Amino acid sequence: MKIMRLGDSGREQPALLVTSPEGPDRYFSLLPLTADVDGAFLADGGLEKARKALEAGELPDLEGAAGLRVGSPVARPGSVVGIGMNYAAHAAESGAEPPTIPVVFLKPSNTVTGPFDPAPLPPRSTQYDWEVELGIVIGKEASYLASPDEAAGCIAGYVTANDFSEREYQLPGAAGQWTKGKSLPGSTPLGPWLVPADQIDGGNLRLRSWVNGQPRQDSTSAELIFNAPTLIHHCSQYMRLEPGDVILTGTPQGVALSGRFPYLQPGDVVEVEVEGLGRQRQELFRTRAATTA
Questions:
Q1: Residue 228 carries which DSSP code?
Q2: Which of 46, 45, 112 is nearest to 82 (CA)?
Q3: What is the pLDDT of residues 74-113, one digit of tens each?
Q4: Burial (CB count <10 Å: 0-12, 13-18, 19+), residue 101
Q5: Residues 6+ away with beta carbon under 8 Å from 131
Q6: Which residue, 10, 39, 246, 259, is most buried by CB atoms nearer than 10 A?
Q7: Which strands, in side-by-side order, build the sheet including 2-6?
Q8: How far apart are CA 168 and CA 45, in angstroms?
Q9: How far apart are CA 236 and CA 249, in angstroms?
Q10: pLDDT in the model for residue 289
Q11: Distance CA 212, CA 226 (A)
């Protein structure tokens, strides 16, 4: 069972995708259950309700779904929480020691976009980078949790994510400016679908990325320094996570920051994939700077 949001930006409708090796994909409308895949839907046990409605044959087919734009599988989150350097090899290629506690930063929720939407390069960007990541979708409020075991119960499901980052904005200077480098429009494509946590092993999924068809990253979530429950437990000590929020768990080695690959340019095509969660594709284009009249 794969949860999606389909349609033009700002007008997506909730859907459920069932794939089968024996037959064609089938899309079902979730409108009988909810107007959107948002925090309220997740907090109210929406994923289990969708499962039961599917099994009972209560969901109508969504005609023409395969031709619709694919949006983020979660409506605009309240918070997008990023985790930095959560793979030892990526920390090393970044010139840093592996962290002993999670490195946490925030991304504006208005950076979230669909998995196949064109990706805007900032007007003066010269060091735009890709980052395939496993995304955690929160399904239950998490605040001052007692343990990672309790935190595991707050996971609604998982998504593929690409955390586009502008390194020149992010890293120079004594203090660093992670917020500047991680807040650019269209820099957080999510999807194509959300898979419920009880249907996939988030702790052992392959992550890969390509630029213009050339392999870049290839790792697994088993190599995370801090796994999903640990991250949720840690973050809950400093912020309240709410249903529909997304945590980006960090990227493995193989990004342009390593010095082994060029940074992104207009016309480049980036693809990222997390096993079982689908592949994204973004074509880069240069955003024009505003001009005065």
A1: H
A2: 112
A3: 999 999 999 999 998 888 887 878 899 999 999 999 999 9
A4: exposed
A5: 162, 163, 164, 165, 209, 251, 255
A6: 246
A7: 2-6, 13-20, 23-29
A8: 42
A9: 15
A10: 83
A11: 31
